[in-house]
Each structure stands twice: as C-alpha cells, then as structure tokens.
Amino acid sequence: MNFTRTRLMQDAFRSHSTREAVTVWGRLNSLNVQRVLFSAADLALPVDHIPAGGQGGSLSTPEFLALNPNALVPVLKDGPFVLWESNTIVRYLCRAYGHGAEDARDVALQERWMDWYGTEIGSHMTALWGHTKRGKPLPPASAEHHWRRATALWKLLAEPLEAARFLGGRDPGVADYAVGPAVHRWHAMAPHDDIPRSLTRWYEALSMRPAYQTYVLNAPL
C-alpha cells in the first residue's frame, strides 16, 4: 500500500506487548482518528499507526477501499478483524480489552455521550475549528450561533463531571475516549471563563495520561 508506515509505541502502553499490535489507518489531525488511537493506547495495546488521508496517502486505492469501501478514516485492524467507524471502533476496543462498564444501564449512560457529541455538538465544533484554526472564516452571525450553542452544550457535561473524575467513573470509558479529544480543541478555542471548572478538571485528568499526550495534545492541528 502507498502509505508511509510509522510505529508509535510508548513504554507506558506495553502491558499487552506480547500480543500483536492493532493497526490504525488515519491522519493524526483527525478527531475521529485521535479518539481511536487514544483509546487503543490508553487500554495498553501496542499501536501500529499508518498515515492515510491528506498527506498520508490516497484513500481511493484498491488496497484501502478493500479495508473501507467508504474511503474514510479511521480503520482498525486487529489480527484478521477489520473495522471502521470511529465510535464503533472505540466500543469494540473497550469491550474487548477495556475496563468499561458492564451493567447495561451504565453502558448506555456512557454511550449516550458518544452519540450526543455526533448529533448535538459535533457540527458546531467542526465549524468553529475551521473558523479559528483552519482558515475557514464564518459570517459573524453564523460564528456567533456556533459559539453560543457550543458553549451551552459543553456545560451539559459539567454536572456528571462534578461527581466523577471521568465520564467513565474512576477510569476512562467509551465516552472519555470519544469526546475527550474534542475538549482539547475547546480549551484551545474558547475563553476559559466560559468553561466550567469540572470540565477543566476532566481535561487536566485526561492530559495526565500518556496516550492522550501522544495522540491528542501532541497531534498536529
């Protein structure tokens, strides 16, 4: 395949070092790719990252389309098993290798925040990230709308994070892996006076984890 192959393995992530690495295709500045790399590494899996998309290589080659016919990243390969769609990958990794909730109600409460990001706040974050960081300015009225809605929506996380270190409780879970990379972008964009203290504490707790540092904090914009 026409991809530059990079090996990204950290000493802190090697408790599963006797097993074969999971392979992740994608570009490091993609939020969807970040959530997959962050979750895999935080779950102590060896990670083999292959840049794909953008400068990483075409997603329209026959080889890549055999992995994902939608020509999108990320894609995960775990042994012979291939999976695409970032939230689905995160759910799989947590169920296969994680310390996530087992009770159906606890699982649903976490997965609710995964879906919330995609259906409620994700479009506002994408617009604002392009507006502030990627040279895609919005008309003033549109920018104001996205700022207002994103600010209000992020505040919805304040209450559950008052009671726990992570959305997953004592340890990160599927919601932390899915939404956590985006809170880094929010702290890079929003006035800190508009960010609830519990949200900042969550961001600080995530930032202490080596996997988050590698695949989110140090990722290119």
Rough outline: globular
Strand order across the largest sheet? 1-3-2-4-5
CATH topology of the largest domain: Glutathione S-transferase Yfyf (Class Pi), Chain A, domain 2
Q: Which regions have little confidence, pLDDT < 50, spanning 5+ residues?
A: 1-17
Structural class: alpha+beta
Strand fraction equals 5-15%
Helix content: 40-55%
> Helical region count?
9
Mean pLDDT: 91
What is the radius of gyration? 17 Å
- How many β-strand runs? 5
Largest sheet: number of strands, sense, barrel closure: 5 strands, mixed
Please tell me the total number of domains: 2
Which CATH class of the largest domain? Mainly Alpha
Give the terminus-to-terminus CA distance: 26 Å
Domain GST N-terminal: 20-101
InterPro entries: Glutathione-S-Trfase_C_sf (IPR036282), Glutathione_S-Trfase (IPR040079), Glutathione_S-Trfase_N (IPR004045), Thioredoxin-like_sf (IPR036249)
Protein name: Glutathione S-transferase
GO molecular function, one term: transferase activity
